[in-house]
Every structure is written in structure tokens, then in C-alpha cells.
Amino acid sequence: MRLLTTVAALSCFLTQRRLESKCLVPDDLVLDEMSSWDRTAIGLVPTMGGLHQGHLSLMQRARQENSTVIVSIFVNPLQFSPNEDYNKYPRTLELDMQLCEQAGVDLIFAPTPEEMGVLQKSIQESKVTQVIPPSAMITGLCGGSRLGHFQGVATIVTKLFNLVQPDRAYFGQKDGQQLAIIRQLVADLNFPVEIVACPTLREASGLAFSSRNQYLSASEKQQAAVLYRGLQQAKAAFNAGVRNSEELIAAVRQEVAMVTNALVEYIELVEPNTLMSLVTVKEEGMLAIAARLGSTRLIDNILLSDRLPIIAIDGPAGAGKSTVARQVAAKLGLVYLDTGSMYRAVTWLVLQQGIAIDDECAIAELASSCEIQLTPSQDLQSPVQVWINGTNVTQVIRTVEVTSKVSAIAAQTAVRKALVKQQQSWGKRGGLVAEGRDIGTHVFPDAEVKIFLTASVTERARRRQEDFKKQNLPEVNLEQLERDIAERDWKDSTRKVSPLQKAADAIEIQTDGLSASEVTAKIVDYCQERLLQLSSL
Fold it and tell me: What residues bind beta-alanine, as annotated (predicted)?
């Protein structure tokens, strides 16, 4: 792990890292259309230091999903008002370095304000070019008392994105307003970075980890747990059917009032993406609170959602994901999201329109503008009917011609982004079972249930050999099949587009010796147990 403090050194590090990654391709490696040894994915974890277990969870997530992990440590003067705690904000670089080392971070970037081009002044006094988020997003919640705060955050985050050019950036859900604003920033300014939201980590009492917790005395720290208890009271009311904001807020306020030292600044119910106030929760709401104990200001929030569950099933080729996902959806009364059919539908449309497979610009245009619909069917052979631009393509997307071209189409980044966007749009209401390679890590990272379905190479080779026999295809010996599957696993886990990954919060099910119905039963049992557990949190 390295510590750098200048923009010049950071730029040099990034250039070298990308060159090194591209030079690691073995001479005898033959890559298919979707594979790449260009392992240059960069994960950025922006922080202000004073690192704790919450930050550690962000760094660990970034370590799992990227070849290079960079943590920025910068106490941003632009996001502090003149009367706030900039000068006494925790600066614990030595301890921070130890935690980063523990998480396997590659680089800490810890510049001075001068190096970042900002003087030690508030955003109101600064002469630096500012990035100003939509006024409706920065005037409520914390924006009401912290004038200029989110302009300062947006300005420095934009500078970090330009300097690092990360593939992914990691932020905690604890500051839900900041998370929503940064997502909007990325969308509005077309930054090619994925914003990864990570769950709030809490101490045993329920108090959310925060750098400012160290300001609290022992008694204040104990009392501060009342914020989360209040939010939990509201969630219990929500689970009992309460949807009105006044009643939900009252549930929080009643609990927090039991600690007289807790001075509430606000308790508000807002839509988590737009931050607009809600009168009632129709689909999803974020209940947020800010309060002071002594001189320490603390924030917390909780998401309230009527969304039906999403079940994400990932795993290597030949593990039986498609069959099992269909059966799980049928058993639980959920919709099977046939993501593979979406890529096949786009491939069919490309072929229909006579577009060359390597004309990525034309294919990007088509994928971004086409309309795909998936509708349930009673046909057990085709449980999902597939439509593209009004044409039913359920059968024609299974032809040899489409099958031979779909990998090349699916490998194109623009196609991937367009279809993931559609899948995530469908997922807003939940009620889905989806399978693939990165469904639980990328497409639906907030899925309530995540399964990683796998089997030994020997078992998957045996299954493939049986499939060949059933289809009256020429027999292939097991040793060759095992070599082919092992190579496919390696390529899937190292490919640049949608690599095979197990989500950190997924359970692994080894399917050797189990029938599809037995695997389905295991998943259904786990889903019911997991959903019951989540409802009680």
C-alpha cells in the first residue's frame, strides 16, 4: 500500500497501474469475445479520514469488486460552515493507514487543501469553481442548517472523479442525502462511474458508526442509540400498515423524547432518490433524523419500502441457475426475469436490421432505443414471452444464428448498460427472481436474497455430457469437458464485462448430487427464513 499526497504522484500511479495490468496477458492465452485480461477496474472510496468499521466495509466491498482500490482522505474545508468543526475534525492518518492496510487498499490519496486547489475557507468564501446540485435536493434535511455543505461536497467529489477516473465509487447509506445528491451529480454530468451504496454499519447498541462518535462521552454514546431505536419504532409501525408521514415521524419523536439530552434538528420522510417530502409512502421512503447530543451532531436514516423481494441467483456456467431460478419463481409466485433472453432479443434485432456485429456504435444506438417486454406465460417450455419493439421473438431468439452471435453482442459495454438499466427499472417494484454472473453484485445489489449456485467441475462436466446424450449430439469425453468448463470459469471470473462474482452477502449452495427440485427446495426454505428475518429488523 502506498500513501501519496500530490496530484502529480496520483496521476503517475494510475498510469503505471493501467500499463501494468495490460501487460499481464499470458502469451498463450486465447480470449473469447467477452473475455479480457485488462484488469484495470478502479474502485474509489472517498473519505474525510477518522476511519471506522463503516469505512472498512466500503473498502472491503471495493476490494472485492476492483483490481485497484484507492481511498481518498481529505478533510474538505468547502463543506464546513465558519461555525462548524473543521479545525477539530478527527485527523488520525496513522490509524487510518492501518485500517486501509487491513482492507487491502492499494493507495491512499491524502492531499492538502492547497494541493486540491481550495483554500481553508467555506464554500461561500471560496473563489473555486463550484458544482451546485439541484436546489430542491440541498435545501431540505441537512441542507437547511448546513448552508453550502452539499455544494462543497459536490465540488470536491467532482474533482476526485476527474483525478482518479474510477469505475466505481463507494458511499455509505448513512448519509442518504449525500448519496442521492452524488447519484444525481453522476447522472446529470454523465460521469462514467458506478455509484455503489453500502449498508449502514452499526455498533451493538444500534448507533451508526461515524467519525464524530469519538466526540461523544460514554454516557452520550449510550444515549445516542435512541436515534436508531426511534427509527425502528417507525419501521415497526410501517410493517403494521402505517403509511402516513405524520404517524411515522411521531413514532420516532416519541421514542427520542425519552432521552432529554437529544435535541432533534429534524425528522423527515422523503423519497430516497429525489429527496422530495412525502405525505404517504407509496413505494419507498427514507425516514431521516438529525439530532445533537451535547455539541455532537449525528444523523441516521432508515428505508421504508413496500417493494416485493428480489432474489438474485449467480454462479458459474452449468450450475443449473436457469432451471432453478424458474422453479423458485414459480414456487414463490414471483416473476422470472430472463435476462439472457434480453441479450438474445437485441442480437436478433441486430441481425434483422443487417447491422455488422462489430459496429458497436450502431448497436449502441439500437440497444439504447429499443423496447423489450417480458411477460409471464403458462407454457412450461417458455415461461416468459419475449417482445422487442412490439414483436414476439420468444421462439426466434433460440435459433442457431442468434445463439452463435449473442456472446459478441452481450460483450459490448453499451448493450450491457442499456439492458441493465431496463432490468433495474423493472426491479424497482421487486417481485423478481433473476440469475446470471453479477445479478447480486451489480444489477440488484440491494436484493433481499442472494444465492451463489455452484457445483464441482466434475459434476458440471457430467451434467453437460448427459445433456449431449439427450440431444443426440456427438459424445465428448469427460476430461475434455472438464478442461473446457475450467477454462470457461477462469474466463468468466476475469472478463471485463460482467465478471462472475459472489456477492459478499450471498450464501453459497453446492449442488453436487442434488436434483434441480432439491436445490429449489433449499433456496425456497432459505428465502422464507431470510425474508422473515428481514421483516423483524
Answer: 79
